[in-house]
Each structure stands twice: as C-alpha cells, then as structure tokens.
Design a protein that fits this description.
Helix content is 0%, strand content 51%. The chain has strands at residues 2-7, 10-11, 18-23, 36-42, 49-54, 60-62, 70-75, 80-85, 94-102, 105-109, 112-115.
Length: 118
C-alpha cells in the first residue's frame, strides 16, 4: 500500500547534488516520530537496496557506497524525511523509494527517478 510521497528527483551531472524529500500525508502517520524511516533505491536490472536509515532516536546508518556523500534526516513535526545527495555519480542512477516501518508494518512511496548521465 502506497502511503508516502517522494519528490526531488531529476537529472544532474556527475559531481552534482540533489535533495530528495518524503512526506507522510495520511492521518495514520499521526505518530510519525515512532516510525523507523529509510531510503531505498533500485537500478535497472538490480534488486532494491537500502541506501540509508534513520531511527526514531535519530541514529543513522548508510550503505558503504554512499557514506560521506549522502545525509539522511527527518522532521517529525512536518512528517518529512530527506536525503541530501552530494557528489553524485552515474552508479547512483536509480529509482529512490522511501519507507516507513512501525513495528514491522511497512509503507512505501511510489519512487522518484534520479539520473546521473555517464
């Protein structure tokens, strides 16, 4: 069930930056701060992979491939999550999805395309 909405994708040259956002507009996310949030991505012909995760306490984890380049953050009062992506490379090209997890129940967005031409 798609309940989240991503935005901010686009085409950017290698070395550039993009900031993705994810908003939880439905009333069922009234306790947004209790959700574990994460960004995933899926490149053509590849499996969906975890990019970054932010817990309810703000603790973050990153895939090795994006450490030092991407930063995940959340705004609980606005029910939003962000992914600041710097020094983008062609291998970062993918559809990026946000996910909310509350006690094992997952909700996903429809994804936003990020393209870095080689």
């Amino acid at each position: 069930q798609v309940l989240l909405v991503e935005s901010g994708g686009g085409v950017v040259q290698a070395g550039g930056s993009l900031k993705l956002s994810c908003v939880a507009p439905r009333s069922i996310f009234s306790s947004f701060m209790q959700y574990e949030m994460a960004w995933y991505r899926q490149a053509p012909g590849k499996q969906r992979e975890l990019v970054a995760r932010i817990g309810t306490s703000g603790v973050t984890t990153y895939a090795d491939s994006v450490k030092g380049r991407f930063t995940i953050s959340r705004e609980n009062a606005r029910k939003k999550m962000h992914l600041q992506m710097n020094r983008l490379q062609p291998e970062d090209t993918a559809v990026y999805y946000c996910k909310a997890d509350f006690q094992g129940t997952e909700s996903w967005g429809q994804g936003t395309q990020v393209t870095i031409p080689s």
